């Protein structure tokens, strides 16, 4: 599962000059335990501190209802899958619910449910996160449950094998039986060349079969540790109370030596990649193009917000250029859009897609799309269009501030990929500062040498 591409930049609780990003980018095997500190307010009623074992903690008080959201983010994801065993990070998300000696089987989930709470987890290429939403007086309970499985998870052949089968079935349902998902998977593998972003988070089917108890235990020992985690608590809490509860539940857990994260050097792409996939189970033809672009963590100042704004102008909604031209004016497509995914430690992706109307070929549709792209490179957007796009982006994030979960997601995701809380806080202002010329330069930065173009066609034997 993955979070919204805008979630990491939702509005506002702030910490000035937070140390999390620098910590996340260090060699994790050399992390030393910081001295314990008291909660420190740095702006807008948000607080931070660190436990002595290296766990980072962020508290976001929200007293509108007697409810709390606890999220535990680990700096481990699909990029950390060992070579030849893709999917183990996502597989391990499943294993964390398989039980400990004191909380066996599915008692973790049952205990949270019996206490009126909800829980889930998700894995991306860059992180894995677990959360519970529950009444505030149950926060010590869910902290103890998380602390227990962080160090006492039971891994046996009897538990690993069945869960591996569950993940394999999930892959069959979500990917192997979905032609568009299969095409997206193939396109990303071609886009990223040697980078582990080219491996699917859920793993390749052939490699999932290689996961066993030994590889699972090694993965657990190498990545699941308090000094590799960020605890985010949002809700009806006081910072000092969270500090005390976190110290009681998590503070006694020992730090571990961690597996250093790979820092791949992606080779240059020399030309565009093109692919055509024909599937009997494809319902309609689809045009898709993925560009490899800088992420928020990589981009020079101003570029990522400009790419975000350009995606909104180009294909963010029914007022966008692609929709107006392809769907409304030329009647070539039934749907069209664009998006920018910049919430990554390494490269981001800029995507364009369209679904042709019956009788329209993908070649004709692609030519029309390229004409729209060329027009945005040649001329800056109109002032009214730019204002509408920026207002929509900022508003969508502002609305999310009403949700505890969105607040916890925003900061947890940002910190997990190496951004600072200032980046979260300043995002609306950075979007508002995007100029028409910034957007035109962002459009010009898209290179076909850094792209994969895919055609999905119905047909052939099933």
* Largest beta sheet: strand ordering: 1-2-3-7-4-6-5
Overall domain count: 2
Please describe the biggest sheet, giving its number of strands, its sense, and whether it closes into a barrel: 7 strands, mixed
The value of Rg in angstroms is 23 Å
Q: What structural class do you assign from the helix and strand content?
A: alpha+beta
Mean pLDDT: 90
Task: Give helix and strand order, one letter per element, not per position.
Answer: HEEEEHHEEHHHHHEHEEHHEEHHHHHE
What is the count of β-strands? 12
Q: Given the structure, what is the number of helices?
A: 16
CATH homology superfamily of the largest domain: Metalloenzyme, LuxS/M16 peptidase-like
Helix content: 40-55%
* Portion in strands: 15-25%
Rounded to the nearest angstrom, the distance between the terminal CA atoms is 28 Å
Shape: globular
Low-confidence stretches: 1-37
Q: What is the class of the largest domain in the CATH system?
A: Alpha Beta
Write the CATH fold name of the largest domain.
Cytochrome Bc1 Complex, Chain A, domain 1
CATH architecture of the largest domain: 2-Layer Sandwich
